[in-house]
Amino acid sequence: MTERLADINARIAGIGQVGAVVNALRGIAGARAQQARMQLAAVDRYTASITAAIGEALVVMGPAPAGGARPASRVAAVVFCAEQGFAGAFSAHVLDALPSVACMQEILLIGTRGRMEAAERRLSVRWADAMPSHSAGIPKLGHRIAEAIYARIVTGEIDGVVALYSRWRPRHGVQVERVMLFPLDLANFPHPRDGNKPLLNLTPETLLRNLTADYVHAQLCKAALHAFAAENEARMAAMAGAHGKIEQKLAALTLVQNVVRQEEITSEIAELAAGMMASHP
Prior knowledge:
The chain has a domain of 191 residues: Pyruvate Kinase, Chain: A, domain 1. A hairpin with a 3-residue loop joins strand 4 and strand 5. It contains five helices and five strands, in the order H-E-H-E-H-E-H-E-E-H. It has a five-stranded mixed β-sheet, sandwiched between helices. It is an alpha/beta fold.
């Protein structure tokens, strides 16, 4: 063996430090993913309540005009990508789904790392924001995205909005999902079974407008939470793979360390023996 024991010890110590960092990142990602999953249940209930309220408001509005809503011809895609690194191809999977968005006019992108990936692909991103480091900041992010969307709708730049986000499914990993935020698909808002009209303190048009704004914000928060959880799940998986490779490397270096140590001990014994023989002719 030509490697000195001190060099091998230094390499083992260095890899051990990398392993500590990997374990820390894995633990942080796990805690954030778990917190987001717990909050998703509340967002789902909130979205279901708004959906039911819109269904009741539509009863008051009366039957929809024949032909339904006009299909969107200028669509903005709200794309939720990775905010931080060490998440594998998380952003790439989401951006790969962009060509499936018909009539795409512009991209509103969430995630610093995702914006870097988009720049490498030479995608034109008109508006971008960072994913918050904690899930508690997602409602404010939802408000900022909604404001950007409404500003473009008012000016006539877009007439449709679709959200692309990742969702973590056990045993299936990260899967990209798409939800149409605007125009609303009235088929998603079933009328109440009893058919009774609710009592209103607002005009039906004002009520429906306010409920639609709440519905869009709830859907944005839901998509952001799923993306937040999926990114951290992807980071956990990446760190688990890195941890396994670190363990393999440490095992190999430990084996070399033992061999080199044994060779050095053998060499020292041989030198001692040669010295003793030289001193006793």
